């Protein structure tokens, strides 16, 4: 099983999400990559399907983009 | 420590994210709430700060909205 990777770019939202993810998953289970600093990994992130940051690459290769999906207004209908 | 809660509304993206979250955190550590079906919990979710779904409420009360943040174009600058 591949490791979980958390891609971020150092913004306050990213850092806050990083702490939350580490608390949830455990620091030994997630690699933190700051693509704002380590720009050599931007291409890898894009190839994995990262379209925005922060994003979490799960062990099965899915990308969870963290921060905006369907609005509550849409859910309420 | 409060439990992690995953709020979603039954959409395909939500279900996919639900499986990923359960795999990462463990099903015993996260409560899954479908506010599309269990509409009585919409108010609780909004009070917790959920603005879109899928969203993850972490044990410390932070809300991670899953799906769109800063674009890669922004990161690249």
Layout of SSEs?
The structure is a homodimer of 77-residue chains.
Chain A lengths: L3 E5 L3 H14 L4 E5 L7 H7 L3 E2 L1 E3 L5 E3 L4 E2 H5 L1
What does this structure look like?
The structure is a homodimer of 77-residue chains. With 77 residues, the first copy, chain A, is an alpha+beta fold. Chain A has a single domain (4-76), classed as Glutaredoxin, CATH 3.40.30. Helices cover 34% and strands 26% of the residues of chain A. Chain A is built from 3 helices and 6 strands; from the N terminus they run E-H-E-H-E-E-E-E-H. The first copy, chain A, has helices spanning 12-25, 42-48, 72-76, and strands at 4-8, 30-34, 52-53, 55-57, 63-65, 70-71. A 4-stranded mixed β-sheet of chain A has the order 2-1-4-5, covered by helices on one side. The longest helix of chain A is centred in the N-terminal third of the chain and has 14 residues, at 12-25. The first copy, chain A, is globular. Chain A binds chain B through residues 4, 9, 11, 13-14, 16-17, 20-21, 23-25, 29, 35-36, 42, 45-46, 50-56, 58-60, 62, 64-72, 75-76, and chain B through 4, 9, 11, 13, 16-17, 20-21, 23-25, 29, 35-36, 42, 45-46, 50-56, 58-60, 62, 64-72, 75-76. Strand 3 (52-53) of chain A pairs antiparallel with strand 6 of chain B.
């Amino acid at each position: 099983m591949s490791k979980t990777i958390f891609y971020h770019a150092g913004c306050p939202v990213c850092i806050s999400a990083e702490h939350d993810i580490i608390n949830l998953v455990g620091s030994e289970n997630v690699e933190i990559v700051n693509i704002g600093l380590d720009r050599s990994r931007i291409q890898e992130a894009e190839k994995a399907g990262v379209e925005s940051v922060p994003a979490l690459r799960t062990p099965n290769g899915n990308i969870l983009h963290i921060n905006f999906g369907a609005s509550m207004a849409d859910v309420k209908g």
